[in-house]
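Researcher: Let's continue the batch. This sequence belongs to Glycerol-3-phosphate dehydrogenase [NAD(+)], and it's 469 residues. Same format as the previous ones, please.
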Amino acid sequence: MVGSIKTMKHHSNGWSAQNCNGLEEKLDELRSLLGKADGDPLRIVGVGAGAWGSVFAALLQDSYGRFREKVQIRIWRRPGRAVDRATAEHLFEVINSREDVLRRLIRRCAYLKYVEARLGDRTLFADEILKDGFCLNMIDAPLCPLKVVTNLQEAVWDADIVVNGVPSTETREVFEEISQYWKERITAPIIISLAKGIEAALEPVPHIITPTQMINRATGVQMQNILYLGGPNIASEIYNKEYANARICGADKWRKPLAKFLRQPHFIVWDNSDLVTHEVMGGLKNVYAIGAGMVAALTNESATSKSVYFAHCTSEMIFITHLLAEEPEKLAGPLLADTYVTLLKGRNAWYGQMLAKGEISLDMGDSISGKGMIQGVSAVGAFYELLSQSSLSVLHPDEKKPVAPVELCPILKTLYKILIIREQSSQAILQALRDETLNDPRERIEIAQSHAFYRPSLLGQPLATLHCQ
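Model: Same format as before. Here are the structure tokens for Glycerol-3-phosphate dehydrogenase [NAD(+)]:
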């Protein structure tokens, strides 16, 4: 029954005494900054158990979980999500291919339930398997066992640090509920948001609403206590110790200590004051990743076609960043890096591929079993709605008349017609690329660089508060 077994080193093993001492020192520093007394553990809670949220909690557990008297790490996910038979069968194969995982489950007397699920004699649930280190959206990459809580109030009411791992489309709803449990708190928690996505609002002026802003409005926690962490990485690869980097963005008071606390030899965390702009860029790349997946599928992975698409989509992203950022050139490297990794292996590119191949349909929604929320879909709608406002008009290079910015973004327009109003098929993305009237992407960049496009109102804040100090 076990079959072929791979021997793999467990992530939490192999720490030297020097490493442990260094980790404990970092933990003690953060505890001191938060005013934690001896015997009162630092309480870190992940809210949401998608791939990145689960990996983030597992990284912290692997690093700091041994210091039980000083830190408590938990993760909340909704109860009741059943694991289907096909997933249970695949999970059983994964377990039996990993000697370390197999031994761990046998030692914890947890193996039998996976046998029963494989035979169809038992139904597993997502919160149940997460306790054993299996994220439903990332079955092929087992994590360390996690402390899982299914009651949101129990999870967050006394948390010192809350990590937002729910999709941007669910962030407001979840944190509005959380706010009910924080009414009598004396000290505000620190919140680190991992969510990539945006909403568009048109009143009083067209502007973007990001997950950190949703959290701020839902809970009343000040923006100086809310940070964003993101970067060009794939969750499962980070947990498997592939070298990666990320940025934690927000107020100086917390971003630097948290960057130090989160940094590991294989996961380098830098810090930056520009919170909202980095957060928006994290959502923007998901838009164009879906189109990249479509082009790859429709052209049988043609390198030439994908490079043509990349030229046009990056020029549109550069154009949009000039509307959103006062110094857009500072974002070029991080944005392109994040876009590149998403195009290579991200779920949004995968979604575009599956749509183009006909293996999934739009009627299935944007929450896909085994993948989680495809946040690029809602981001397409939000960016299109925002950039189609006439109050943001720019001068068209050929027609020499004011047009909404979206008129200079043919890829974004096409994705909107495919994904949101559904008046065109995936083939339309190729037609857009092959349109003989399409401008040279270089011209779009030149337009952005030669005109005063910057609109601070798009980020929903006065100019003076765009950077958290």
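Researcher: Any comment?
Model: The chain is about 45% helix and 10% strand.
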